[in-house]
């Protein structure tokens, strides 16, 4: 799914400057690892010290990998920042780089 509203260059620059920063989201600590402007998403990676074991397609233990979470940057209807993104920006800007 592509973004319906274009993300302005200033916001993209702000988001990219926050790559590597930690934040709290849904009661868990995450780290911003990517900005996908075409899809209108930021990608967060769980910052758990010991990630959960991932299962293969047959349900067998395969490997350990941190959980990934995607957050929509802009509201698809109104075009402004989503509430979730506003909260993340506030948290990301108040933390130190990982």
Characterise the protein shown here.
The chain has 98 residues and is α+β, with helices and mostly antiparallel strands. It has one domain: SH3 type barrels, CATH 2.30.30. The protein is 20% helix and 32% strand. It contains two helices and six strands; from the N terminus they run αββββββα. It has helices at 9-17, 83-93; strands spanning 22-25, 28-36, 41-46, 53-55, 61-64, 68-72. It has a four-stranded antiparallel beta sheet with strand order 1-2-3-6. A two-stranded antiparallel ribbon has the order 4-5. The longest helix has 11 residues, at 83-93.
Beta-strand proportion: 25-35%
- The strands making up the biggest β-sheet line up spatially as 1-2-3-6
- Report on the biggest sheet: 4 strands, antiparallel
* Number of E strands: 6
Spans of at least 5 consecutive residues whose pLDDT stays below 50 are: none
Distance N to C terminus: 30 Å
Mean pLDDT: 86
Number of domains: 1
Inertia-based shape: globular
State the secondary-structure class: alpha+beta
CATH topology: SH3 type barrels
Give the number of helices: 2
Order of helix and strand elements from N to C terminus? HEEEEEEH
Helix content: 10-25%
Specify the CATH class: Mainly Beta
Based on the coordinates given, report the CATH architecture.
Roll
What gyration radius follows from the Cα positions, in whole Å? 15 Å
Supply database-style keywords:
alpha+beta; single chain; SH3 type barrels; four-stranded antiparallel beta sheet; 20% helix; 98 residues; two-stranded antiparallel ribbon
Give a quick precis of the structure.
The chain is an alpha+beta fold and 98 residues long. It has helices at 9-17, 83-93; strands at 22-25, 28-36, 41-46, 53-55, 61-64, 68-72. The protein has a single domain (9-54, 61-93), classed as SH3 type barrels (Roll), CATH 2.30.30.
